[in-house]
């Protein structure tokens, strides 16, 4: 930890988290922080300058646009997530008002949401110190990967000034509906696709008989990328990670015997969204179901494809135009259908922490709202049918706070920026899925416990529907046994736990209300930064979100590799010998040959 010759500065241990980073890769604690577009020292708040790569000292405003600074910022071993991300906290500490993006300006969740206060009653401190063998209670604090400090104890002092809040009322922190699960539990919607439409159809029917209330279709990679199964580019992908659908006939067979006027269908499809949605509509019509009676969701979230998933087909501009076209068609013809599922799940799976997942997903949503307006619609024409999709990982408290903060953020920003007349335009409704990232190949039965914890976090966070991953999905497509355990996890939560009978049981919790406010504020800073770049479409083109996610993923992996973040059965408590488990194996050649035969028959007819 020696001082580098040339260094950059960001953050302050007193005001907001920060470091000094040298181009030699060394990292030092910093007494400097970011305030009102200046670099200031905590004890004097005087204007200072910093030196980069041996160049002459530059003011912070010049430095921000400096190529040298960009190189240093992105290539150092530790990267502060954002200069702007420290701005609001630092300004608040100094008594200044931080600047916010004009298009997304929103007040912090609470005046003291970023202040860490360790004032406790003397008698409690005395007893706690004794139990800790002389250590102060503050020694029990810890910091999340988002840079939020978690105290060992929260009191009513932590939520002073918090307004009274009710579910089903603005800003919907406690839920989009007044009675939530007490009136109707969340929808059990298991995501699945098994190689062929015939096999998938059998699985869907079995699931419906066993208590699943909605379907979620997993397509194979060839279908996602818009290729027919006979294309040589996708020879090894057909049927491997989902169901192969090449034609209307495939889509009809997929839902054969499944009443589409009663069962809602979610389809994870983005690049090839137009043909897949069209085939679904035709499949419904051939069942005698009018298009206006179809219910469900099409994912249609292309921005996250450019960020993390890469199944886009067209460049950004025409891709965004397609989204506007889908909004227009669905708003006019499919009143029970969600025209988009704005996905944070894939962002988290790529390595983002909860704040980045929340911020980038809400920023995506704002960009899609502008897309709808450009397509000639009013905000109320399409916003009530926008839906979201969260990944739910193992950080239990953070996941609940993320989902609560998301509803508050969305309602506040939509109201401020678009002034809808329909209250439903303000409601963030979401599907959730337990983490795929947290599933381990080693000692896979541990994944049952992980999925249960994540499912509970999703439910406590107020999801509208949920998919629970099967324990063997780190190895293969789920077997019938593992799929049953995953499905029954939700059924037991609904039928045996009593959890649904209380609306937002975390409401009023000192910890949860404080954490919700902190997550809200941290995410808002990142959203404002995206908006200052011109919105998410331009931010994606700049590469900023992708870089942030990659940096976050690298830090997380480093913690796991070092053993500082424990993964049971992987870097701690490993089994010396593991017994193999039965997994579902897909015969790719057989599936592809079957699809090619059907394609040839269609082309001849």
Automatic annotation (TrEMBL):
Where is it found, in Gene Ontology cellular component terms? mitochondrion
Spell out the InterPro entries in the cross-references.
Cbl-dep_enz_cat, MeMalonylCoA_mutase_a/b_cat, MMCoA_mutase_a_cat
Which residue range or ranges hold the Methylmalonyl-CoA mutase alpha/beta chain catalytic domain?
A: 144-604
A Pfam family reported for this protein in Swiss-Prot or TrEMBL: MM_CoA_mutase
Q: Provide a GO biological process annotation.
A: propionate metabolic process, methylmalonyl pathway
Record carries keyword Transcription:
no
Q: Name one GO molecular function term.
A: cobalamin binding
Key words, A-Z: Cobalamin, Cobalt, Isomerase, Metal-binding
Instruction: Check the record and name the NCBIfam families matching this protein.
Output: acid_CoA_mut_N, PRK09426.1
Q: What is this protein called?
A: Methylmalonyl-CoA mutase alpha/beta chain catalytic domain-containing protein
